[in-house]
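re the bet — no i am not wrong, look at it urself. input seq straight from the record:
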Amino acid sequence: MWDRYALGNEVFDAGVDHTLAAAEERKRLEQEAADFDLWHSADFLPEEDPNDGELLLDALEQEDILSELLRNANLNAPDVLTEEPQGTSEPKISDAWSPYESKMMFLLDTLDNLPRMRISNSLMNVFLWILREGGARDVPSLYHLRQVQASLRKSTGVPTTQHKSPKGNVYSMNDPRTLVAMDWANPMVCGHIRRYPVIPRDGVISEVYHAQKWRKDVDPHTLSPMYDAGNCHYYIDEVARLKNGTFIIPVRWLEYEDGNVCADAYAVTFDNQVRNLISVANVIDSETILVQASDFQNNFLDLKDMSLLPTWNGQTIESGHPARMPNPDRALAEGDPLYTSWIDVFGDDVSGNRSKSWNKHWNIYISHRNLPRKLLQQEFHTHFVSTSPVASITEQFHGIKQVIESTHKKPVKVRHGTSGAQMRFKINVNCGPGDNPAQSEVCGHIGVNGNQLCRKCHAGGTHEVKESDEGFHSLFEPGDPRSAEEIVLDVEYQVQLACLGVAQNVQNQQTKNGIKDSYTQYWIDYLIDQARTLRKEHPGRTTADIQSKLLTWVQEHKSEIYNPFLKLDGFDAAVDTPVEILHTILLGIVKYLWHGSHTSWTTSQKQTYSVRLQSTDTSGLSIHAIRPNYIMQYAKSLNGRQFKTIAQVNVFHVYDLVDTTRFLLTKAVGELTALLWMPEIPNMEEYLSDIEIAAANVLDLFALIDPSKMTSKLKLHLLVHLKADILRFGPLVGVATETFECFNAIFRFCSIYSNHLAPSRDIAFQLASQEVLKYRLTGGWWPAGDGEWKRPGPSVRNFIHDHPTLQALIGWTSNEKLVNGSFRLEPLKRDASQKIESRKYIPWLQTQGAKAVNSSEGTDSQWTACRFAIAGSGDKCLVGSWVFATSPFNAKQSVTGCIVEILAESEGKRAVIVLDVFEIRRTRHEIFGMPMLARRHEETIYAVIPSTDIGFLYNVQHDCPLAKCTASGKQPLIQERVESGLFKTYIEHKPIERFVINTHAFHNAHRLRAALERSLVVPILLYPLEVRKAKHTEIAHSLRATQKAKLEARAAQKKKEATTPADKTGSVIPKKRTRSEMEAEADDTEMALSL
């Protein structure tokens, strides 16, 4: 605390009494604070009634001890730290800042709910005190602030409900229905929601709703069932008439990128023969036709009212089409539009501490998959549902499943954010992204250490099977696929075996098929104990009788004892847990490669690698700054971000630091990772072929280096499932978990500042408050108590648009695209007197553009330098960037090169780039296998290109092996922003005009492959298909020989230990010498010395 603070003639007094008694009291309080460690702003809140989900989190009677100390220190702010007087009048709500009573209350609530800037009660008390002392208006007490927040949570918030799992564990959950409804009712979000599977423009697949699951695989009844034509609704499975008079039955609604709707439909034909003056109709359900929604004229109800419903023939009636009319969803909708919202459910175990002390919580987050990936990759659109230190993911999902299924019987009503119309929606689960252990738990799989190591197929077996010729080869291909239905049947059979009371039988079944559901295992153990108890208590009862009794109990509790993920309609756990590229590729394949590469390096080789890595040209890589010394120092503890860097550039630095096979693996891994991080797929067939070849090369090279990895590492085998998952979900970056993993930091802040007595509830409350704050800031609507819908006042709605900093703080990214061809001038410099210099212009004749072969600007025209120009891809292109652009000589062709100058004319209306033009060689680099750039006839050619014609930025590396570049340069070592006097070496690139196009780079990988000839980028199979199996057989032979040698060596070691001489007690420790022996030895020594 300050004793005195002076500003001008005003004296700030913190209320410190300088009398001796007061000084002694301060010392006592300071000692208390030190003794009890109170200066760390920890909040100590007593436990509240867990059944009352709407109690104030921080009422005055729960103030922490630091607030007590502040009061005892005679701070003159009692109205901030004490309870509001009884009988105070209700504050008037300002319309502009509604639902807040003032701007101050709005700002304080915003400050208190920033996701990554959590503050404690003590710090909030200090803020309120400072505001009051500074003369701010409308400063509430902490008590009143908490009252307002609790009131807002009740009226506009996300409901937090308490649940008890079937195992008896208690946890709290934020209602997923409300979280999804907030997207529909948010005017800034609802316009991006896709109601139906989307037919991609030009066949380019970039989103989940473009891919095969929504388009073909999933049951059409789980998709949005109707189309709103304005005056009527058309449902699937109901006959409708088109404007041309034909009849059809829509079976799946679709939409185009522009929002126009169409439908897959069955055609309806009529027999030529008329019976009793009535034509008999037949449904052609062997194939579908595509019908535009604009061609529909009458729906089922219209036809019924007009008595125009067809008379169906016997085959159609037998197929069940008439029985599905009208669609049951029509009654559920009650005249409102009805759609389906798909969610991804992410579950993981996370520590609630920032320290290394592990405080395990199981967390569940969701994202709304009807939104495009560009939104879902923002923190704003990751929604917390539940957490618990005691209830597992499957236990918590038991309650979530009930909520999801409730929407199928009673769809959620919501006001559309822009149209204002009332609509309804159901919820279904799209997929379950997560790391491999979490996905195995979702699938009821035994885990990666089981004989059947794969959750998606039946690959694997015993060690003998996996090391046999056929078994080893089978690991390189997908096995017989698993399904949720098959897994449930296996688990049910295990439950039946458990009712016999013999645990070994259950274990044998689990080992045989690789199915061991951790959720149901609790009940299996319970049933085994019950069967044994019944047998002991009633020896006369037969085993069959005991089993029958227990199975009756199982039937009565069927909904509680089976994994809820396996019982959820529309979600197949074995298929809908896609390969996750963060954990499987970066923290799996790339990590294995990195470990095998660096562990054998000498100190000199590590230094060489660090210097090379530091010299990497990072333009066009979209990665963080490379820290080579850190990477080598902590080579065994790298994270996904560093592995992402290694995957893209390592091939240029290890070509002479590893053996030939491992370098081939480095190239294969870089090629595969670049393909997997492509954000869109222009040609699915071609792309899947590339993925299949690249994955096969990685597997074959890993098997060559260490065959045992193929039999023990699940992440390697999962590469064979990449093709199926991409076909089902589109680009795998769309189902990556990086956004969810980043959200763990927000959860951790809430965990730290909870009272730790009811962590599940307190964390859910806090994250629900953050959700609602984001919702209010973006202008969402909510239902009021009177049935009307309300939204925040205009000042609240507009606040976020005027404050980009706040957008970043809540994880919102503006969708405004950078304008192609726009540019920014170089910032003005300051002279020696710190005055800003005027902008300098030079005539065209003095620019590099004057040397261009197509120079056409006036020689006296004035130009100034630009800092960057925006490409068509949205990239910021600087001087030195390598780009593809539209050729100034032929608009149908492209040209590539390095930007040497960016110039804007004096009027500032347009800009041009001066491009140092290179041509692409027709052959690949002999070492890196990548396309090469070189000057045509070794001549420097400049071309002037309008900034609007820049296509995209890409990464290029210098051809150091050809130029024989070495670490011959020295530069000062900067420490603490000053020159330390030490020097460090760096790579001096020799002046050779040949460069390598980095096709391992993730950024713009899809654009780069489209711009290059197919022959330069297509993966080349390491082993042709006709010899690949024979090669695997050869590797299997070597594996068996290696394993046999290890077993023999281990047996010999045990035999040697068994035959080692020992005393009678079996100890090999030498016996302690007696005193007489030591004296005799001393006498002998003296005699020897005397001689």
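see?? Residues 1025-1058 form the longest helix (34 residues). told u. also The chain has 39 helices and 34 strands. so pay up
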